Amino acid sequence: MTPNESHFIGELVEKHGRNRTSLIPIMQEVVARNNYISDNDMTEIARELDLSAAQVFGTATFYAFLDTQPRGRFVIRVCKTITCDMHGKKLVIQTLEDMLKIKVGETTPNKKFTLLETNCLGWCHEGPAMLINEVPFSGLTPEKVHDIISEYMMK
Amino acid sequence: MPDSKLKRVDLIFGEYSNVKYKVLEDTLKRTHEEIIDDLLESGLRGRGGAGFPTGLKWKLTAEAPGDEKYVVCNADEGEPGTFKDKEILMRVPRKVFSGMAICGKVIGSKKGYLYLRGEYKFLLPDLRKELDFFHDYTKKLGFDFIIEIKLGSGAYICGEESALFESMEGYRGEPRNKPPFPTTSGFMRKPTVINNVETFVNVMMIMRLGPVQFKLLGTSDSRGSKVFSVSGDTPIPGIYELELGMPLDRFVEEFGDGDTKAVQVGGASGFCVPRKKFKETVIGFEGVPTGGSMMLFNSSRSMYNVLHNYLEFFEEESCGQCTPCRVGCQQLRKGIEAVKRGVKKAVYLDQLMKLSESMKLTSKCGLGQSVANSFSSIVYNFKEEMIY
Q: Label partner for B183 (CA 20 to 30 A): which of A37, A146, B225, B335?
């Protein structure tokens, strides 16, 4: 871990408080900054909060959004629950796979995009839907996906 | 829809006063006994799906010993087919915050939490802005109540109240044993009222209209109106506020595409109602209860695929803490796959039905217990689709 990184976690602990209720908010901020929580981050958080690394790891891995694997700068999560599935989710995935040249679960070599599937996002009336980081997109068609991703590629 | 047969209501999203937080200000002048009496009188039952009487929940928490108490708003809306809480938080967050503040007054709590699912993180800036206004306002009124937002991180099970407390406290979202119930031991093991987003808005409605007016809507078992999330094979998907206690055939007449073969009421953990039972089915606590999710399927859909999708969902979202749910969800999914492929004979479905019943009896929380709802109602009503 770089000194910079250690410093960052120290700041988060100062901000949220040195207690167990701060664990998830701290990890959420680490993910927001680095796209995932590394083993080193978890060890550092454990040390700061006086927990065992196993407790931190156990908590992180429980939550789908607290990634413990390296992810791209933009994490795409496509809803795979029933109404999105019925209304063309497969085409959405296919379009994304074709554009990004990766499969579901993978990250592009330039570390820019990660493609994942997720459970119900709460956009069933406008499915198919996806999140790119925290931004929702609904009413997706292959064309719409194409436009959205083209824009993100320029970012 | 001009020839609509269902009674449309516009109480949840409606604007009633130009002065923000007027109802809150008026209500804070009343005693907590009066407020509880109104809630009990109204017959309001929780809108998250389980339907516990709200007035009683608040009364029990108010009476519970202890100085430190909490108000928690459950906005971990994860049930497939449900998206109403998001809409409420986008359009009328002040009604939610007002309802929470009134609860704070009634139970003697100074601290409220809104547990917002991670998938709705995009709502944060607007909610924070509204909260700033809310805190300024309550400060001016001299009413000491602070609301903080806690963000979830993508776990359906955290919508279960005790799992939600675990998550708020920084642990894995694994449900606790009950009792003790949240009324005596909730967040930080302190007496806590935890209600669904819509329930807090309903409280505001009762404070404004009075219980008598509120009771005019719905039936004796299901008072008031309800926000429904309508999706699936319908020409008009979306959010609709309707009176409780409506017959399903009229719902289908209005929302179906003319070819509806089944309606899943209450999401993946709810019940599947086939066409032949539309007429006799009532939507409400006396019939098929729902947290608001209504998914329509037409005859082009394979109910095997629907069930398979639900089982995959449960398999992933089971917290894994208790065996009946952790193993049961996997085995049900593998079981229907085996029957479909012809590896197992059709009678194997009966075995699976028994397994789902065991899960209902022995699972620790509502997740494992409710898998049987959709499983048995789909397998029973669409057996041939499971086999061929």
A: B225
The tens digit of pLDDT for each residue in B169-194 reads 999 999 999 999 999 999 999 999 99
The pTM (predicted TM-score) of the whole model is 0.96
Determine which of A45, A49, A62, A137 to mutate to test the interface with B (most B C-beta atoms within 10 Å). Answer: A62
What's the number of domains chain B is made of?
Answer: 3
- ipTM of the shown complex: 0.96
Please judge whether A122 and B319 are an interchain contact, meaning their C-beta atoms are less than 8 angstroms apart. no
Measured between beta carbons, the chain B residues lying within 8 angstroms of A62 are: 155, 172-174, 319
**Could you tell me if A136 lies within 8 Å of chain B, comparing CB atoms?**
yes
- Total domains in chain A come to 2
Q: Is residue A18 part of a domain?
A: yes
Stated length of chain B: 388
Rg of chain B in Å (alpha carbons): 21
Q: Where in the sequence is the domain holding B327, given as residue range(s)?
A: 303-383
Chain A residues in contact with B125 by the CB 8 A cut-off are: none
Among B83, B155, B309, whose Cβ lies nearest the Cβ of A124? B83
CA distance B288 to B285: 6
Say yes or no: B119 contacts chain A, CB-CB below 8 A: yes
The residues that bridge with A114 in the sheet, in sequence order, are A75, A107
Q: Which of B188, B295, B206, B262 is nearest to B11 (CA)?
A: B206
Whether A34 is in a domain gets the answer yes
Q: Do A124 and B232 count as a contact with CB atoms less than 8 A apart?
A: yes
Reading the block at residue B289, the tokens are 């209860």
Residue in B with minimal Cα distance to A131 = B119
- A81 and A137 inside one domain: yes
> Measured on CA atoms in the order B332, B336, B337, B342, is the torsion positive or negative?
positive
pLDDT digits (tens, 9 = 90+) for A13-52: 999 999 999 999 999 999 999 999 999 999 999 999 999 9
Task: Tell me the CATH number at A128.
Answer: 3.40.30.10
For Cα atoms B363, B367, B368, give the angle at the middle one, nearest 5 degrees.
Answer: 30
pLDDT tens-place string over residues B207-227: 999 999 988 888 777 788 889
Residues B310 and B288 in one domain: no
pLDDT at residue B111 is higher than 50: yes
B270 and B366 within one domain:
no
Query: Same structural domain for residues A80 and A105?
Result: yes
Cβ–Cβ under 8 Å, residues B112 and B100: yes
Given CB atoms, is B268 within the 8 Å cutoff of chain A? yes
Measured distance CA(B43)–CA(A78) in Å, rounded: 40
Which among A66, A118, A123 has the least Cβ separation from residue B83? A123
Helix, strand, coil shares of chain A, percent, nearest 5, are 55, 10, 35
Partner-chain contact B118 A65, CB within 8 Å:
yes
